[in-house]
Amino acid sequence: MTQNYTYHIGSPGVPWTQADKALWLHQQIIKRSYHNEVVVHIEAMQGPFNVEQYGVLEYADGPYPLYAITNKQLDNDKPTVLITGGVHGYETSGVQGALRFAMRHASEYEAEFNLIIAPCISPWGYETINRWNPMAIDPNRSFVPQSESPEAAQIMAFVSKLGLPVHAHIDLHETTDTDNSEFRPALCARDGKAQDIWQIPDGFYTVGDTQNPQDAFQRAVVSSVEKVTHIALPDEEGKLIGSPMIQHGVIHYALKDLGLCAGFTNAEYTTTTEVYPDSANATPEECILAQVAAVTGALDYLREQQ
């Protein structure tokens, strides 16, 4: 079902002008600290791991340095695993889950894998609790050549510069109630196009690649997370957020066609996690642990395949 949402900026059915985007940006405010909640923990990883600033976002509220955590020594003979969080900055458990994995579990896997962990790709979005960047661009639809999103462009350039083929990419996300209350109405207004109404799933699920689904890999991720929190059930049409549920807790998207983060590396194994932080049956800590379980479940599966 589609709907023309009402939104307080712009005219219905008419894409936003630059003035509309400027008004939207003017209304965004800083609500939390990227430095205090993210950067200090990344910097604490220096020593056991390598911490590299791979870029910077020169925004009015910034600048925002961008960081990645990697093994001290990257080895061409090891499979490389990329773990990304905060592509949508407002999705808190993705950021904190990537950090928690790095701080408490990465050392358990560094002997077997090259780990590249980018905990917060969109720090301005983290601070303003936003899906978009200041230009009203969705970074997670921007992993394309000549990307207009510096968030997407800079992590893609960094991974390319490392010169290591990525074996697996785990991209950590959330699906929230604000997807329907704020972000989809804003998308409808920005583009002047009606948007589908989604029933927000209560629980965890993953998004596999339509062209490369890797069903057993997705199943391993879901099975690991199921030990920590509940898995989303399909709606009355057998779907999650408008897409058919392929197996327990799994849907598919065409990752590359949509310009999604998990599709940019050509990795053999990819998954996008989706945690539901607004559930009455999950705490913020449980959501972080679910993201960690997704990463460890994926790595344990890959370990078994070697």
Automatic annotation (TrEMBL):
Belongs to the peptidase M14 family. Its cofactor is Zn(2+). It comes from the Bacteria. One of its GO terms (molecular function) is metallocarboxypeptidase activity. Residues 30-306 form the Peptidase M14 domain. This is Peptidase M14 domain-containing protein. Keywords: Hydrolase, Metal-binding, Zinc. Transmembrane segments: none annotated. The active site is at 274 (proton donor/acceptor). SUPFAM superfamilies: Zn-dependent exopeptidases. It holds the Pfam family AstE_AspA_cat. One of its GO terms (biological process) is proteolysis.
